[in-house]
Amino acid sequence: MSDSLTIRRPDDWHLHLRDGAMMHAVLPETARHFARAIIMPNLVPPVVTGADAAAYRHRILAALPPEMSFQPLMTLYLTEDTDPDDLAAAHASGLITAVKLYPAGATTNSASGVANFDKVRAALERMAEIGLPLCVHGEVTAEDIDIFDREAVFIDRVLDPIRKATPGLRVIMEHITTSDAVDYVRTAGDDLAATITTHHLVINRNHILVGGIRPHYYCLPVAKRENHRLALLAAATSGETRFFLGTDSAPHPDTAKITPCGCAGCFTAPNTMSILAEVFEKANALDRLEGFTSLHGPNFYRLPVNTETITLTKGAPVTYPNTISVEDEQITVFDPEFPLHWSVTA
Ligand code: DOR
Ligand code: ZN
Question: Which ligand 1 atom minimizes the distance to the CA of 221?
Fold first, then answer.
């Protein structure tokens, strides 16, 4: 196997950049390697209108170090009050690339999400009409559903009914964590794709809970059993175009992670490409890394692939800082718990 791999510059199809000082700290970590990213709208308050997205995009570009190039692909946060005309106008002007559906209460800053799916029917129908894709956080929030079952139940109770009721709606099931989701996405037509995170290819639920509780491995959807991780790994390395990278890199200060009620999120932006190269090499699928990180996403989103390239080189183990600083806080970088030999060198 060659010790160097040149691929088209990757994109991240699910990223949390936050705002303010945190955004200034984490944005270069993504822009260093990635050309574009789908920017999650779960700020406080959320990015709900076209005007919100335009202002947020402006703040992101203003925070970008001048020597870096990066294109934020903006999304709007779907609420029960979303105006379909506002969505359509933001799409027509090229401002937004997708709309994000959070079931109310499913995760960090999702209080304004959707509780009654009938109330977003008109918006979804308009999106299907104009070809605006829907990104979905696929977990039910019903209290009687076990947290490890919430993704599988969401497919049956919410996602499948929405797709059947809205022909033509193009959906991305984001950060899938189960073999149920892999199977479901495979049975669907070409109007459904899924993103897979870096961390869900590495950890299972034991990483969170065995030998002491490890808050930095806690994210949502929560990592599942090993058989599910293996199904995700098989999907990511299969070469199937319906699976592509969305890191869900989700920075939180350590003070918000290491606390009796800690936030969900793994911060993988700095070392994602190193980890993925290691994971794909171990799976004997290095030749499929480019599809997963750089080709399948643009194909589904109907965007051009990037023309620039990056080169990964294999050598002695590379290390990344354990944390990055934001003002007087630290954000812990995801630790895959295995040595990394690949780094982006050009
Ligand atoms: O782990 C997560 N963190 N999952 C999400 O869906 C949201 C994200 C965040 O915003 O921190
Ligand atoms: Zn997310």
Answer: 4
